[in-house]
Amino acid sequence: MAITDWPELERPREKLLQLGPASLSDAELLAIFLRTGARGKSAVDLARELLVRCGGLGALFAAKRAELAGLPGLGNAKFSQLQAVLEMARRALAETLRSSDALGSPGAVRDFLRLTLSKHEREVFLAVMLDAQNRVLACEELFRGTLTQTSVYPREVVKCALERNAAAVIFAHNHPSGVAEPSHADQVLTQSLKQALALVDIKVLDHFIVAGNSALSFAERGLI
């Protein structure tokens, strides 16, 4: 049955307009983006199939062009549209962080870092520089490593923070393995950076590990 033959409140677009986007499932949201289905499949059916094959929205968003090329409904045009949507989301979240207290918007910080880091296949270490009011001054990618590790140099981190005139920083890096748990090395590095920055009166407020669709906070774990 075509979606146009469904009861009005079951159609994704009409449901979104009447009840809001939060009322829709992942498949329904993706169906609105796809717009059309395939032979014998509605857009919702196709969306469900894509989510199963990719392993969820997070994996779909992080997938490379070559990985999506063979999937039905996701050619070059749709891939370009998807990347544009994700980039707009990143920029919108970055604007939100720059105009508000980062600590007062923990969800925005987490979402921004997930969107920024989950796309990388190798480990990337970045720092969000904050002023004395915890407003974002800059987000800097400081180091890039391999599939399993990144070399981080405290001296370079301190230098960058001083150049930005930061009063505080939030660190983040990704785990391409998909496991967000901090390693012993992650914890030792965080304490080393905290001590180095304390010497120049700069606070470390948090350190996030992004893995897939998850983002673990050191502060929430009591590790800062």
What do these coordinates show?
The model has no long low-confidence stretch (mean pLDDT 86). A 5-stranded mixed beta sheet has the order 2-1-3-4-5, sandwiched between helices. The longest helix has 23 residues, at 76-98. Strand 3, helix 9 (184-198) and strand 4 (203-211) form a beta-alpha-beta unit. The chain has 10 helices and 5 strands; from the N terminus they run H-H-H-H-H-H-H-E-E-H-E-H-E-E-H. It is α+β, with helices and mostly antiparallel strands and 224 residues long. Helix 2 packs across helix 3 and helix 8 crosses helix 9 (184-198). 46% of the residues lie in helices and 16% in strands. The radius of gyration is 20 Å and the shape is elongated.
Brief summary of the model shown:
With 224 residues, this protein is an alpha+beta fold. The protein contains 10 helices and 5 strands, in the order αααααααββαβαββα.
Secondary structure blueprint with pairings:
Blueprint: H1 12-19, H2 26-34, H3 43-54, H4 57-62, H5 65-68, H6 76-98, H7 106-117, E1 124-130, E2 136-144, H8 154-163, E3 168-174, H9 184-198, E4 203-211, E5 214-217, H10 218-221
Parallel strand pairs: 3-4
Antiparallel strand pairs: 1-2, 1-3, 4-5
Helix pairs in contact: 2-3, 6-7, 8-9
Poorly predicted ranges (pLDDT <50, ≥5 residues)? none
Main pleated-sheet profile: 5 strands, mixed
How large, in whole angstroms, is the Cα Rg? 20 Å
Compute the number of helices: 10
Query: What is the terminal-to-terminal distance?
Result: 54 Å
What is the oligomer described by this structure? single chain
Q: What is the succession of H and E elements?
A: HHHHHHHEEHEHEEH
Summarize model confidence as the mean pLDDT: 86
* Helix percentage range: 40-55%
